[in-house]
Amino acid sequence: MPRYRPHVAARPSWRCRVCGAAWPCSPARLALLGEYRENRIGLLIYLGTLMQEARADLAGVTGQVAPEGMAERFLSWARAR
User: Fold this and answer.
1) Which of 9, 16, 36, 48 makes an SS bond possible with 25, Cβ 3.0 to 4.6 Å?
2) How confident is the model at residue 43, as a pLDDT?
3) CA distance 64 to 81
4) CB–CB of 55/69 below 8 Å?
5) Closest Cα partner for 79 from 47, 49, 55, 50?
6) Residues 6 or more apart from 43 whose CB is under 8 A from it?
7) Is 63 helix (H, G, I), strand (E, B) or coil?
8) Cα–Cα distance measured from residue 34 to residue 69, given in angstroms and rounded to the nearest whole number
9) pLDDT tens, 18-76?
């Protein structure tokens, strides 16, 4: 029986260690929504902090400004609907 492996970011690329998608990937998003189900503000603060770390890491890797769409990737999906 396969064991669950958490979908976490590989730094400095910010790709998922399990599926290779841009992190947070869909499974990571679902896990984070479940973990922070009672604290959406806490989730947004956590994701905002990670977004800033990702911007710095990605800028260091490419030597340029971090890619566009970081807010969409890290924050927009987590807003309350």
Assistant:
1) 16
2) 97
3) 34
4) no
5) 47
6) 32, 33, 35, 36, 78
7) coil
8) 24
9) 999 999 999 999 999 999 999 999 999 999 999 999 998 888 766 666 677 899 999 99
How close are the terminal C-alpha atoms of the chain, in Å? 36
> Who's near 13: CB < 8 A, 6+ residues apart?
57, 58, 61
- Copy the structure tokens of residue 54: 């990702």
Task: Dig out the tokens for 4 from the structure.
Answer: 């669950």
Q: How many residues are there in the chain?
A: 81
Could you tell me if 70 and 55 are in contact, meaning their C-beta atoms sit under 8 angstroms apart? yes
Residue in this structure with the two tokens 């479940």, named with its chain if needed: 34
User: Using CA atoms, how far apart are residues 2 and 81, in angstroms rounded to an integer?
Assistant: 34
